[in-house]
From TrEMBL:
Primary localisation category: membrane
A family per Pfam: BPD_transp_1
One of the GO BP terms on file: amino acid transport
Organism for this UniProt entry: Methylobacterium brachiatum
Protein name: Amino acid ABC transporter permease
Transmembrane segments: 29-53, 65-86, 205-230
Similarity remark: Belongs to the binding-protein-dependent transport system permease family. HisMQ subfamily.
Amino acid sequence: MNYNWNWRIFFDASPEGTGTYLDMLLSGLMWTIATALCSWFIAFFLGSLIGVMRTLPSKTANAIGTAYVELFRNVPLLVQMFLWYFVLPEVVPTQVGDAIKQLPDAPFYTAVVCLGFFTASRVAEQVRAGIQSLPRGQRMAGTAMGFTVYQTYRYVLLPNAYRIILPPMTSEFLNNLKNTSVALTIGLLELTARARSMQEFSFQVFEAFTAATLLYVIINLVVVTAATFLERAVTIPGQR
């Protein structure tokens, strides 16, 4: 294999005229982080709501929660990304569809919504499992204290369930962070898309994707470290 390694390529001016190749990769990293954080905000709150619905005694709430989870969890993320970006603007009223198409940074908003709804189905299962893993006595204790259903979940069940599912929720966040790379298919210039652009412009494919890999590893290690400190901070004394 006759390949010319050039690690100084990162400091060469990019063809975009807005800085070096390193600047281009860091710009992609910023879009990746922004997309991951915004979509996680949707996923966490919507997923928590759906997860709670799946543990309520109401059959209607259970049916809605189950339908949501099965729909979004069983359709591939790439298909959902295309549906949100290409199909949705065509099936809504014309004025709404035109407004969606003309949004500045439309791929970013589409990726955020798509990843948020997709990841929410997985978060919902984590929340459901966390609540159902708690002793039945905790729910009955809330009832005995005169709490409403909302208060029982707010002050008794959810705080303890979140402590239990913090490690798997960290894994879901990391999956969500890596899933942002799928958004390159709709034109979002996140980290993977920037690495592909760099290798197409410079033909230094190994350098481009080695740098992208290292950036993914670094940001993932930061998340894992932060989650470890958070887990220690919320641990109930005497349980560890």
